[in-house]
Amino acid sequence: MLSSRVTATISSTTTTTFLFSNAKILSKKFPYISNPLYNSAKSIKWNCKKSRMESTASSFVTKASAQPLTNPGELIDSVETFIFDCDGVIWKGDKLIDGVPETLDLLREKGKKLVFVTNNSTKSRKQYGKKFETLGLSVSEEEIFASSFAAAAYLKSIDFPKDKKVYIVGEEGILKELDLAGIQHLGGPEDGDKKIELKPGYMMEQDKDVGAVVVGFDRYFNYHKIQYATLCIRENPGCLFIATNRDAVTHLTDAQEWAGGGSMVGAILGSTKREPLVVGKPSTFMMDYVANEFNIQKSQICMVGDRLDTDILFGQNGGCKTLLVLSGVTSLSMLQDPKNSIQPDFYANKISDFLSIKATAV
Fold this sequence. Notes:
alpha/beta
């Protein structure tokens, strides 16, 4: 079954001369990654064969409705690599979803490469490695790609100037990844307790050397951060507005859904009237990075996730096969809603449905 194809167009809405307009690509490994701010007067268009960032204007061409996964063995044999979302697929909050260890063991036994991609930016790759270990899963740091890492990797790919800084609206994961990338930063958790006294004549001043604002999920979000980020984006010439993701909800516990990173991004979008550049899913930046890092053909990848507008769209944008699991955000009724235009190739209750091939063999 052919994956849905998406064409996204991003049009710049400002005539500001961006300070990164002449930036060259740092790594020769990613010649297809262009600076989306190269020329503010131009439109940048990606198709499924090229790297693209998320746009608010997308068109979907759906060939067929998703099919239930009745023959998992056939899907497993048809690809070399499985990319898994984490929250809602591998775990919910800090609770492992039933059958995950046995499923990952089965796929490894069959020689499949496993990669784990998460939009959650609160942890670095190293910290996520510890979470996998705590849950009893053997996953190497090299197999993990978080949106915190994607933000740092993107800034490196556009040769973010060494004398510029990043203001962080987010948590420790972004700080750690920027540190590893050698990028100066301020903000983050240390601004969580800052308050503003709105007295006559008071003005907040921002660091004029901030060249990018990175916004991720932030449990310590406050008005100080909104105003500081707004001033940087609005008043510092060429300042980038980068979002790790725009997820509406997340699973902080397994008991209910909680407001996601999209709520923090939305607040700053509202005050700046600027659309962010999104480096997490469904932008294909991480897909392109993973494919090149492991020398994987995208047609040989199956993306497994619980969200239609991030995970499944991420896989479709990259030209991969897609499997939706109903163990997280998306329900069967949501998938089959006539208003839903994003259809994966297959759907299953959870990834342990793969284990049915063992039962069949017996």
